[in-house]
Amino acid sequence: MYLAELEERLGHTFRNNQLLEEALTHPSYFVESMKTTGKDFQRLEFLGDAVLGLAITEKLYEIFPSFDEGKLTKLRAKLVSRKVLSPLSSSLGIGKYLRLGKGEEKNQGRTKPSNLANALESVIGALYLDGGWEKTKSFVFQLFSPLFLELHKDPSAFLEYENSKGLLQEFLQKKGMELPVYRIVMESGEAHNKWYEVEVLWKNQVLGKGSGKSKKEAELRAAKEAFEKLISQTPIDLIQES
């Protein structure tokens, strides 16, 4: 069977092969083909999203007993984001097995982060229906284990990065200072592969710089650099000017 390799990576041999095929079927497959019967992965994606969220929630609750609801929610949101799910999906080779329409195939649909993330969720949904909760939870824990280990070592740094713009703004407000301004200093690359460089300024002074594949990512990195400088260097000149 052509999906045997994927089943091996999932650690499960499907009793209902149609479930796994459905989990790998992009909506474009039926739109652009002559097939009139069959299902795409959207319903399984919906189910898998919920199953994944529960598994991640259980693990975070276990390894961070002192964290409140707010911190746990932020960690979970990051772990189930497209930015995380897409490379995990790639590591399983899911893109290779996707059933795509011709147009989606030409548009590099097998490597699109959105397709990969959605397909991983749909595969998790299929695994849950075919193998049950314990099997699915075990798979999710194993797949995410490197990330859990990384978070367990330094969760505060992770949370600070995700909320670095908020931390910077709060710091300046407490000092009675004006809010920072973010400025794009460079934008390069094709439409599907952009790269941004951003500066964060206070009264025309550059507090930090950051870069990334999106404006949001670049701004977060710039804010993180600025915040770390401010709390470590205690810039008296800035405070006095305010």
UniProtKB/TrEMBL annotation:
Its cofactor is Mg(2+). It comes from the Bacteria. Its EC number is 3.1.26.3. Gene3D superfamilies: 3.30.160.20, Ribonuclease III domain. Coiled coil: none annotated. Mg(2+) binds at E45, N118, E121. Residues 3-132 form the RNase III domain. One of its GO terms (cellular component) is cytoplasm. GO terms for biological process: mRNA processing; regulation of gene expression; rRNA processing; tRNA processing. The active site is at D49, E121. It is an enzyme of class 3 (hydrolase). GO terms for molecular function: double-stranded RNA binding; metal ion binding; ribonuclease III activity; rRNA binding. Residues 163-232 form the DRBM domain. InterPro entries: dsRBD_dom, RNase_III, RNase_III_dom, RNase_III_sf. Keywords: Cytoplasm, Endonuclease, Hydrolase, Magnesium, Metal-binding, mRNA processing, Nuclease, RNA-binding, rRNA processing, rRNA-binding, tRNA processing. It catalyses: Endonucleolytic cleavage to 5'-phosphomonoester. It is found in: Cytoplasm. Its main location: cytoplasm. It holds the Pfam family Ribonucleas_3_3. Homodimer. Digests double-stranded RNA. Involved in the processing of primary rRNA transcript to yield the immediate precursors to the large and small rRNAs (23S and 16S). Processes some mRNAs, and tRNAs when they are encoded in the rRNA operon. Processes pre-crRNA and tracrRNA of type II CRISPR loci if present in the organism. Belongs to the ribonuclease III family. This is Ribonuclease 3.
